[in-house]
Amino acid sequence: MPNVMTEAKLFACNQSTELAKKIAESYGAPLGNVITSTYSDGEFQPSYEESIRGSRVFIIGSTHPSSDNLMEMLLMLDAAKRASARHITAVIPYYGWARQDRKDKPRVPIAAKLIAKMLETAGATRIITMDLHADQIQGFFEKPVDHLYASTVFMPYLKGLGLDDLTIASPDMGGSKRAYAYSKALESDVVICYKQRAKANVISHMELIGDVTNKNVVLVDDLVDTAGTLTKAADLMIERGAKSVRAICTHPVLSGEAYDKVENSKLLELIVTDSIPLKKESRKIRVVSCADLFAEVMNRVHQNRSISSQFIM
């Protein structure tokens, strides 16, 4: 008998329902029916309410804290495996816990590696994610990983601003590679912030490497958490003579007092994707959707077509 490609089926984890709806609309397929039963103590159980036997299944959900988000993805993967899905792709726009990608001091976990093993054990046969905190996290998996770049959606927005004297900035030394990639595509200068931390999320000192006098600066980073680094960098650059400072951050974690810090900072705007839903609206935060990017890559994966054309950097 000829091998007929079955229709792909898309499902959403609760934390990413809005993004999953946009992806499904762009993909051209409805979201599948999943119901979640919850016990009085908070334990929950997802259930596929349609057959997925022999299908390619895409499960869409970011794994940012709380840990319930990761647990839901794991349960969805396990249920799909036990329901005899042929291919099970975990679509994780934001791969949470990725900042724990190495032992930076004795007696700590490497959570990013642990979660990779958990996803594979649960049943994932492929991972699609975007802007990992560290590229080498791909090596934690034994299954194929499609690592997408948000530059695909950010670059058209940046070019549309038509900024003169554009300078790309990295808020720390670790993001210099990302900043150089943007600057190469935009043919702009690069500056880098050097920071020292007193402890996690607390900056003790920051210096600027490079000149931003009369420049329109765009800070680029993979995520914004407390917004301490970004807002401190923006204030420093305005002090050093920058005309304007914007920030592009793929994943809007935005915890603690982040919203207030952004509102009260010298940042003109903070541009993010919808990999994580915003907790509230802000006049300075602009969301650029990554739904079309994921939908296109998922479509190409299902049809066994190359996805290399989807990478700007």
From TrEMBL:
InterPro entries: PRib_PP_synth_CS, Pribosyltran_N, PRTase-like, PRTase_dom, Rib-P_diPkinase. GO terms for biological process: 5-phosphoribose 1-diphosphate biosynthetic process; purine nucleotide biosynthetic process; ribonucleoside monophosphate biosynthetic process. GO terms for cellular component: cytoplasm; ribose phosphate diphosphokinase complex. Its EC number is 2.7.6.1. GO terms for molecular function: ATP binding; kinase activity; magnesium ion binding; ribose phosphate diphosphokinase activity. Keywords: ATP-binding, Cytoplasm, Kinase, Magnesium, Metal-binding, Nucleotide biosynthesis, Nucleotide-binding, Transferase. It comes from the Bacteria. Residues 9-123 form the Ribose-phosphate pyrophosphokinase N-terminal domain. It catalyses: D-ribose 5-phosphate + ATP = 5-phospho-alpha-D-ribose 1-diphosphate + AMP + H(+). It holds the Pfam family Pribosyl_synth. PANTHER family: RIBOSE-PHOSPHATE DIPHOSPHOKINASE FAMILY MEMBER, RIBOSE-PHOSPHATE PYROPHOSPHOKINASE 1, CHLOROPLASTIC. This is ribose-phosphate diphosphokinase. It comes from Salinimicrobium marinum. The lineage of its organism: Bacteria, Pseudomonadati, Bacteroidota, Flavobacteriia, Flavobacteriales.
